[in-house]
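lol forgot to send this yesterday, sorry. struct tokens for the thing we talked abt
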């Protein structure tokens, strides 16, 4: 069980699973910053900027000390065996975490393990780890945390979640779960209409489920969207996948591993451009 939860509303829980109250908004924001920078020094000036968006009051530094004291009291209730936290450094504070204490770190570990299993051809193991990673999410990340710095942080976490979802889809398609995946992806592509990897996965799922015509129609919808929104056409892997579906490529029907690997490259390019 995690103690600190960032993948949804910010929560602190004790060893029984009960939520530990953390009502001060500035303390919540400061805790989120320390958790996301866990194991590294966070300078007091960085804390001031994060809490007041570069418009600090004259009492900002004194307020930081008060918030740190409050956090130490809260954290001593949540995990007393970990000792006093956060600890002071020469220029700021550092929050050290025990393994599995924070859901964001645990998510990263599970998703990375699942991704390596997928690359190694261990599809069932990959599906298991990636499902566990995705199961840690409880809603919008960092809900209840204020500050301009939160916006890009949430965007990074959301991208990591989407990538883990796509990797999970790959593992399930490679396990032959085309029908179930096609149903899920039909809704997901509408939430991420310009995400080519998702559209490609939908095409693979529909084709594998015996719905070839709908697979080709999905490609046509993607072409229309990309042209209207970005003035471009689909990437080379998507065009190759479209040719394979159109020509009834038996290799694609037997096992879409190569097509899915190509789509991962599309995802990597989308991340660079995000």
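and heres what i got for the seq, position by position
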């Amino acid at each position: 069980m995690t103690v600190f939860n960032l993948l949804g509303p910010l929560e602190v829980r004790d060893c029984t699973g009960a939520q530990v109250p953390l009502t001060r908004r500035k303390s919540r924001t400061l805790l989120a910053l320390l958790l996301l920078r866990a194991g590294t020094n966070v300078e007091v000036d960085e804390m001031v900027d994060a809490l007041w968006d570069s418009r600090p009051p004259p009492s900002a530094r004194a307020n930081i000390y008060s918030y740190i004291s409050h956090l130490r009291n809260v954290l001593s209730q949540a995990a007393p065996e970990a000792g006093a936290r956060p600890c002071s450094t020469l220029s700021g504070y550092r929050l050290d975490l025990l393994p599995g204490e924070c859901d964001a770190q645990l998510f990263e570990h599970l998703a990375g393990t699942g991704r390596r299993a997928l690359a190694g051809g261990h599809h069932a193991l990959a599906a298991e780890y990636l499902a566990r990673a995705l199961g840690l999410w409880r809603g919008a990340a960092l809900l209840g945390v204020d500050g301009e710095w939160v916006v890009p942080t949430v965007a990074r976490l959301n991208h990591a979640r989407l990538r883990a979802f796509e990797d999970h889809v790959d593992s399930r398609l490679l396990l032959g779960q085309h029908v179930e995946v096609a149903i899920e992806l039909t809704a997901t592509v509408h939430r991420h209409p310009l995400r080519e990897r998702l559209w490609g996965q939908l095409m693979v799922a529909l084709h594998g489920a015996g719905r070839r015509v709908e697979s080709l129609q999905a490609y046509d919808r993607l072409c229309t969207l990309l042209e209207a929104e970005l003035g471009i056409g689909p990437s080379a892997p998507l065009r190759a996948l479209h040719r394979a579906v159109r020509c009834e490529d038996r290799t694609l029907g037997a096992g879409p591993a190569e097509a899915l690997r190509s789509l991962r490259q599309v995802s990597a390019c989308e991340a660079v451009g995000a």
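The chain has a mean pLDDT of 91. anyway ping me if u want another try
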